[in-house]
């Protein structure tokens, strides 16, 4: 069963001279338990693709289905609910709340949503990501890589059915980067989630089941 | 609450500043309300003490007790549950070096406007008075003999009573005969008793009198027409209401600036799927916390200041009024937050995260 499906999705920014076809007509589907990589040069449309998939950006044409439900017709409030329940975002820029400690970044999700990770699962996650000792710290006191790992923890904590990661390993050294990919793979397989990772790092594609390449708004399976 | 409180704890300095400003506004509001209250009692204390429904004065006096004068036997035409005669006169009382503006009330000791004596005794024979105890602050004592500005008559303070000021002057209560002698001189003795008004308690004001020359004035109306009273209370109340507006605007500006600074952070949370409603509630909760702390500290500070003020400053704190004003301050602060809430609702998560 396709967890995520795109039908003839197209995204155009601007009009007239300034018109940019960031994403040309795309058909795409991702199954449960799949780890998918999207690679491609800068400005090719990878982030555009990912934000449309996550219901953050609405396409110019076409339909996006999450768990067979069409999200293209939903309003902002309903989309927000879908994002909260179904999707874990790991964004290109840091996405932590500056005045919350690491621990409270996750606790915030408990305030707005049920069925997050259990205590034991959370402890395991801390260990896997190597951030157990950081839980009392504020984002401003973390290194870029540590912040990235906390962002990953935040995305996984809500047990989403789809994880969308935009350059999750960009600020990590290669050992950590491999570990993070390993972790994403494990999560994907054990929890039967669907994970899409946008990356520049060609070595990381070895961990993935499928690799797509984005060139000038055209997505192609490798 | 979770977000609101954690943010306050992380940015203590920033939020202490906001609380400080709110506290100062609250302090000013409470102090002005105390002043308004104090100045009002200065004028109306003695009248409130009557616990009366209305006062009957001559039509031509234009609601002024001092200007009203008529024969006491008109009481036969008055229809009320209780009626008390009242003669009133302003004078300067002097004993030794002490001088004070006073208001002399000529009353019948058996009627309901007779004050309770808190010190000394009631007047029993002519030229004895019960004085308002604020005169004690001016150096007047039991047994003092008072000479008056307008007459050769002298009065003796035989007792004191509390809450006895009328139109900013302490009251000297005496019998109607003494009042007449002070007002009209010796020759008035023996003629018809001339008084200034009847104080009445009744449910039916319209039925009090048919007399064309007399006007029945409700107690509250009577107080409002005391010289300077309405002007004073309007001015102070206007300042208080204006402060409410100011505090709302201050909060609005502060929060708006904070919110604009946090747009990308709110965007990130919205991208994550945290509902706008949750974020909006958190801003409201934050405002309520800040305003509540500011108001409580302001209240404490006001009461503390009040305890150290010299008695000459006419400040009287009325706790129920202050609680209401405190509530109003919190509510207007929250209204100030509405701006920021609208901003949050409108944030586009995608733009905010720079996606
Ligand atoms: N909001 C926007 N308005 C106009 N043009 C946009 C907007 N967002 C993206 N674009 C354009 O769409 C194209 C695709 O952008 P996108 O961000 O998807 O690239 P990307 O593949 O993620 O690049 P990178 O690897 O550098 O992150 C670019 O040419 C970009 O300039
Ligand atoms: Mg990108």
TrEMBL record, chain A:
Where it mainly occurs, coarsely classed, is: membrane
The way this protein sits in the membrane is described as: Peripheral membrane protein
Query: Is Membrane given among the entry's keywords?
Result: yes
PROSITE patterns given in the database record:
ABC_TRANSPORTER_1, ABC_TRANSPORTER_2
GO MF term (any one): ATP binding
The record's Pfam families line, in alphabetical order, gives: ABC_tran (PF00005)
Q: What InterPro entries has UniProt attached to this entry?
A: AAA+_ATPase, ABC_transporter-like_ATP-bd, ABC_transporter-like_CS, ABC_transpr_LolD-like, MacB-like_ATP-bd, P-loop_NTPase
Tell me where in this chain the ABC transporter domain is found. 4-221
Q: Which CDD domains match?
A: ABC_MJ0796_LolCDE_FtsE
| UniProt-annotated location(s) | Cell membrane
SUPFAM superfamilies hit by this protein: P-loop containing nucleoside triphosphate hydrolases (SSF52540)
Query: Which UniProt key words apply to this protein?
Result: ATP-binding, Cell membrane, Membrane, Nucleotide-binding, Transport
Q: Which Gene3D superfamilies match?
A: P-loop containing nucleotide triphosphate hydrolases
Quaternary structure (record): The complex is composed of two ATP-binding proteins (HrtA), two transmembrane proteins (HrtB) and a solute-binding protein.
Q: Can you tell me which family this protein belongs to?
A: Belongs to the ABC transporter superfamily. HrtA family.
Role, per record: Part of the ABC transporter complex hrt involved in hemin import. Responsible for energy coupling to the transport system.
Q: What is this protein called?
A: Putative hemin import ATP-binding protein HrtA
TrEMBL record, chain B:
Which cellular compartments is it found in? Cell membrane
Q: Where are the transmembrane segments?
A: 15-36, 238-258, 278-303, 323-345
Is Transmembrane helix one of the keywords UniProt gives this record?
yes
**Stretches assigned to the MacB-like periplasmic core domain:** 17-208
Establish whether keyword Ribosomal protein is in the entry.
no
PANTHER family, per this entry? ABC TRANSPORTER, MEMBRANE PROTEIN, HEMIN TRANSPORT SYSTEM PERMEASE PROTEIN HRTB-RELATED
Subunit and partners: The complex is composed of two ATP-binding proteins (HrtA), two transmembrane proteins (HrtB) and a solute-binding protein.
Kindly provide the name given to this protein in its UniProt entry.
Putative hemin transport system permease protein HrtB
The species this protein was found in: Planomicrobium stackebrandtii
């Amino acid at each position: 069963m396709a967890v995520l499906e795109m039908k003839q999705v197209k995204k155009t920014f601007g009009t007239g001279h300034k018109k940019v076809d960031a994403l040309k007509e795309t058909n795409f589907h991702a199954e449960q338990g799949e780890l998918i990589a999207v690679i491609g040069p800068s400005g090719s449309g990878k982030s555009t693709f990912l934000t449309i998939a996550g219901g953050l950006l609405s396409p110019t044409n076409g339909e996006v289905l999450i768990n067979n439900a069409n999200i293209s017709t939903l309003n902002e409030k309903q989309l927000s609910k879908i994002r909260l329940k179904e999707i874990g975002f790991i964004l290109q820029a840091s996405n932590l709340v500056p005045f919350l400690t690491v621990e409270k970044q996750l606790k915030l999700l408990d305030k707005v949503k049920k069925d997050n990770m259990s205590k034991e699962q959370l402890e395991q996650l801390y260990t896997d990501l190597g951030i157990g000792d950081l839980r009392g710290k504020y984002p401003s006191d973390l290194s870029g890589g540590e912040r990235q790992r906390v962002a990953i923890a935040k995305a996984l904590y809500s047990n989403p059915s789809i994880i969308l990661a935009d350059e999750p390993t960009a600020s990590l050294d290669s050992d950590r980067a491999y570990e993070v990919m390993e972790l994403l793979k494990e999560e994907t397989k054990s929890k039967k989630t669907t994970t899409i990772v946008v990356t520049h790092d060609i070595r990381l594609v070895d961990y993935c089941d499928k690799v797509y390449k984005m060139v000038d708004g055209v997505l192609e399976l490798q | 609450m979770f977000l609101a409180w954690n943010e306050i704890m992380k940015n203590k300095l920033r939020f202490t500043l906001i609380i400080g400003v709110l506290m100062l506004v609250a302090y000013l509001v409470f102090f002005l309300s105390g002043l308004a209250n104090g100045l009002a009692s200065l004028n109306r204390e003695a009248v409130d003490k009557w616990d009366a429904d209305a006062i009957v004065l001559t039509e031509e006096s234009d609601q002024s007790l001092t200007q009203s004068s008529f024969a006491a036997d008109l009481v036969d035409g008055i229809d009320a549950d209780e009626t008390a005669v009242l003669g009133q006169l302003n004078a300067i009382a002097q004993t030794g070096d002490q001088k004070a503006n006073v208001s002399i009330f000529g009353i019948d000791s058996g009627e309901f406007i007779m004050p309770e004596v808190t010190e000394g005794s009631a007047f029993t024979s002519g030229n004895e008075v019960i004085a308002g105890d604020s005169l004690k602050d001016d150096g007047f004592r039991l047994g003092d003999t008072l000479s008056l500005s307008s007459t050769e008559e002298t009065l003796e303070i035989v007792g004191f009573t509390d809450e006895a000021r009328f139109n900013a002057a302490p009251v000297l209560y005496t019998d109607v005969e003494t009042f007449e002698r002070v007002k009209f001189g010796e020759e008035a003795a023996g003629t018809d008793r001339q008084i200034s008004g009847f104080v009445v308690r009744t449910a039916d004001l319209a039925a009090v009198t048919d007399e064309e020359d007399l006007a029945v004035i409700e107690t509250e109306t009577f107080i409002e027409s005391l010289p300077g009273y309405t002007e004073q209370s309007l001015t102070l109340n206007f300042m208080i209401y204006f402060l409410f507006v100011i505090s709302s605007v201050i909060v609005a500006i502060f929060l708006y600036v904070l919110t604009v600074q946090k747009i990308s952070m709110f965007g990130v949370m919205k991208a994550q799927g945290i509902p706008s409603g949750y974020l909006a509630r958190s801003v409201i909760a934050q405002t309520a916390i800040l305003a509540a702390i500011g108001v409580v500290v302001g209240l404490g500070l006001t009461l503390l200041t009040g305890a150290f003020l010299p008695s000459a400053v006419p400040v009287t704190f009325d706790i129920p009024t202050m609680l209401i004003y405190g509530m109003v301050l919190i509510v207007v602060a929250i209204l100030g937050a509405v701006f920021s809430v609208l901003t949050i609702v409108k944030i586009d998560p995608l733009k905010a995260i720079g996606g």
